[in-house]
Amino acid sequence: MKIELISIGSELLAEKVNTNINLLAEKLATIGLAISRQITVGDNPEEIRQVFTESLARAEIVISTGGLGPTFDDYTRGTVAKVLKKKLVFSREVLGAIVRHFAERNIEMPKENEKQAYILDGAEVIPNKIGTAPGQIITVKRVKCKVKSEKLRESSTFHIPPSTVVILLPGPPREMLLMLEEKVIPYLKEKYETGLTRSVTLHICGLPESEIDEKIHPVLEQEKKTEGLKFALIAHPGTVDLRITLSGGDQMLLEQILKKTKNEIYEILGENIYGEDGQTLEKIIAELMLKKRKTLAIAESCTGGLLGHRITNISGSSLYFKQGVVVYSNESKIQVLGVKSETIEKYGAVSQETVLEMARGMKNLARTNCVLAISGIAGPTGGTEEKPVGLVYVAVIIDEKEIVQEYHFLGSRLEIKEKSITTALDFFHRELLK
Amino acid sequence: MKIELISIGSELLAEKVNTNINLLAEKLATIGLAISRQITVGDNPEEIRQVFTESLARAEIVISTGGLGPTFDDYTRGTVAKVLKKKLVFSREVLGAIVRHFAERNIEMPKENEKQAYILDGAEVIPNKIGTAPGQIITVKRVKCKVKSEKLRESSTFHIPPSTVVILLPGPPREMLLMLEEKVIPYLKEKYETGLTRSVTLHICGLPESEIDEKIHPVLEQEKKTEGLKFALIAHPGTVDLRITLSGGDQMLLEQILKKTKNEIYEILGENIYGEDGQTLEKIIAELMLKKRKTLAIAESCTGGLLGHRITNISGSSLYFKQGVVVYSNESKIQVLGVKSETIEKYGAVSQETVLEMARGMKNLARTNCVLAISGIAGPTGGTEEKPVGLVYVAVIIDEKEIVQEYHFLGSRLEIKEKSITTALDFFHRELLK
Question: What's residue A14's pLDDT?
């Protein structure tokens, strides 16, 4: 089944990063559905019209995000109405919800927001509980179009579905996500869930993508033998994901093959796999720390606070994470953590010796069981021949155990920060497991 | 002129966020070019073939990213060769560069990487200085296709360019960006720069999107009068961008109208505009701090380190940013910053009183001129009726001046963290300017 996602908004073709694709993909995957194509267009009625027309000719499900706002450059409602040849109907109920939204926040409703109370004739309204633009679901008959050209027949209209579900969602991720969870996914699940696709993603740390590829090559050879079995490698800063997808056959068989394949990969990559699917290093560490009743403090230099940010993205992290310091200057390393000035003079601020003294100082200060400390050169300036940009030291203390590791990362300032954090968390996780 | 971007990679239709769109858009904008459509497809040769065929029928410039890697799921080279009816030719020179890439890193070259030395017949190679896959540029004649259907004629093939430039770039952002800067942008500039589009983006903080829309409505009315003048509002966590674009006419006139429009917006929004184009709050603050020879220390609670991360994303921030603490527990607030336990008992950890004592404690500890402190409830748990999720206090100290502000933010844990940081930086920036 073909599912196409149309993302609408000039900002998405400029500076704004489109995370709605990933949010949608994640939710669809829970019912065995996958996006086959995603198209982004600006706030341009003509482009929007073309893209909807084309997607309607190809896909069973067309989902759009954005362009439902109240402002001058929101064109989705009107354009889709034209493409589908549907009227826009005023909904007293929707207007009531919008009026209430503003009243609850003690804000006078701007006149512009009235636009948002118009609904495609025949569409089901998806209420917006946290914003103003409602979502809409409508099912339309197949788009008729005779195509003579061989090229275009092949390229876009070979497969013409009998009917298409069109779902319009607002652009703000929080609003879109709530509508997905409460309405869209249950709706699609009832209508389309095949139950015949299963997938698992393995998160890998400590090996480069090409080395993983080489190591798992024998298992990849199965792809050719087992119908419907697919592998994909996805590199992130500091980690690589291996996604195994299997479709077709009955459910028992799917689960069996998937489990067997997964076990084979585990045998090859071993402890380099730190988690599966929705697990992240910070989540796994949080669970382990709570289970082991340990507490953590951190000392960061080159990562500037990003380690603390990652750790505290987990709700409830305050149960084990007690405090952190960002000791950016040498003086603060000395004054706050008691690093000896001779150590910095002799070995440098980026050295095994300094990072270990940072970690020990943090342990004295915070009295936690565990400490994680990072010192390095994030660049692009500040590197030397002896200590190049990307040189990073990480110290881990768990109770009486103290270990320091040296790493060399490539990339931009931000990439080096991100790789440092992920690698440090992976290092800490492995030591926690020992 | 139509420019289409094809993003290739199953991970982009799953968990990986596609930032290449934004990087490309930013670079193209510098020579007055804009992406008109962006399409994402998975690692699926048939989808890749369809998408290239369609884009070639619409656009003058087709740029793809991804699918040039050495692994089993990289299909771009082979598929584009089929679509363009070009042979893939082995390049001894490219293989030499790949071999050197591995030799310099003391890694044995995996056999898989040989694939990357094959180039479309007639294409210009873009060397990859930091990775292995080279980029490619090739100009092809117009795609002939007769279309009988009115619908499809309208929707996708009305405009057929006489020739199309096809540019294949690797997916890793760092590699893609370097190729853009060194080769692709200079190449397109020479060939296509019109010099007839100018745009400016104003960054706004402290006002919601709909209020900005209402305030600038009189200026927006100009859009209808002045041909080629366009406005777009783009909301980010804590900030809104207003992009003004003007095209057509001669350069002097463009600059004049743009300046006049910008001034009108400044008169309405005043100090809510903190910067333009590439400026960010952290960059502007860094410049001001260095100019005023001031130093900064920070104390964070609910933001967990994200404030330090944002500040230290600026290379050279160590010249003014001295240290930070993440005082996540009450004990650390008391012990590290000297917050009185009575203050926390009486007013709570999230209160005007506590955040001010945090800031004062940080100033005593770090002996900097300036301090920024944040305490709040990022949620989703931990809120009460009196102190709901999203309640955030920010304290600013600049020399003898001490000010505390209260904010209420909506959103997810991450959004509340991000809004807190942006708002705190904006608050600090305004006080610095006074």
Answer: 87
Q: Where are the domains of chain A?
A: 3-192, 197-276, 281-433
Task: Specify the CATH class of A3-192 in words.
Answer: alpha beta
Which range has the worst mean pLDDT, A55-59, A69-73, B131-135? Answer: A69-73
- CA–CA separation, B79 and B76 (whole Å): 5
- Is B311 touching A (CB cutoff 8 A)? yes
Å from B148 to nearest chain A CA? 6
Residue B169 at interface with chain A, using a CB cutoff of 8 Å = no
CB pairs under 8 A between A and B: 344
The model's pLDDT over A267-312, given as tens digits with 9 standing for 90+, comes to 999 999 999 988 999 999 999 999 999 999 999 999 999 999 999 9
Cβ pair A300:B305 closer than 8 A: yes
Residues of A within 8 A of B70 (CB-CB) are 210, 213
* CB of B82 less than 8 A from some CB of A: no
Q: Which CATH number fits domain B197-276: 3.40.50.300, 3.90.470.20, 3.30.420.40, 3.30.70.1120?
A: 3.30.70.1120
A-chain residues near B411 (CB < 8 A)? 174
| Contact with chain A for residue B371, Cβ under 8 A | no
Q: Is the ipTM of this complex over 0.85?
A: no
Is residue A378 predicted with pLDDT exceeding 60?
A: yes
pLDDT category of residue A144 using cuts at 50, 70 and 90: low
- Of the partner residues B69, B154, B313, the one whose CB lies closest to the CB of residue A413: B313
* Location of structure tokens 């709706």: A187
Under CATH, which number does the domain B281-433 receive?
A: 3.90.950.20
* Residue A427 pLDDT greater than 70, yes or no: yes
What average pLDDT does the segment A187-208 reach? 84
**Residue A300 and residue B311: Cβ atoms within 8 Å?**
no
Q: Which residues of chain B have pLDDT under 70?
A: 142-161, 193-196
What confidence category does residue A141 fall into, taking pLDDT thresholds of 50, 70 and 90? Answer: confident
* Residues 6 or more apart in contact with residue B145 via CB below 8 angstroms: A149, A151, A152, B57, B157
Q: Mutating which of B328, B363, B418 best tests the A interface, going by the most A Cβ atoms within 10 A?
A: B328
Query: What local confidence, expressed as pLDDT, does residue B182 receive?
Result: 94
Q: What are phi and psi of A273, to 5 degrees?
A: -85, 115
Q: Is the pLDDT of residue A3 over 90?
A: yes
* Chain A from 45 to 64: CB within 8 A of any B CB: 47, 49-51, 53-54, 57
Burial of B100 (0-12, 13-18, 19+ CB in 10 A): exposed
Task: Tally Cβ neighbours within 10 Å of residue A86.
Answer: 17
Query: Is some CB atom of chain A closer than 8 A to the CB atom of B112?
Result: yes
DSSP state of A31: T
Pick among B56, B104, B329 to test the A interface (most A CBs inside 10 A): B329
pTM over 0.80: no
Contact criterion met (CB < 8 Å) for B43 and A232: yes
Distance CA B290, CA B309 (A): 19
Tally of CB atoms within 10 A around A399: 9
Q: What is the 3-state secondary structure (H, E, C) of B362-426?
A: HHHHHCCCEEEEEEECCCCCCCCCCCCCCEEEEEEEECCEEEEEEEECCCCHHHHHHHHHHHHHH
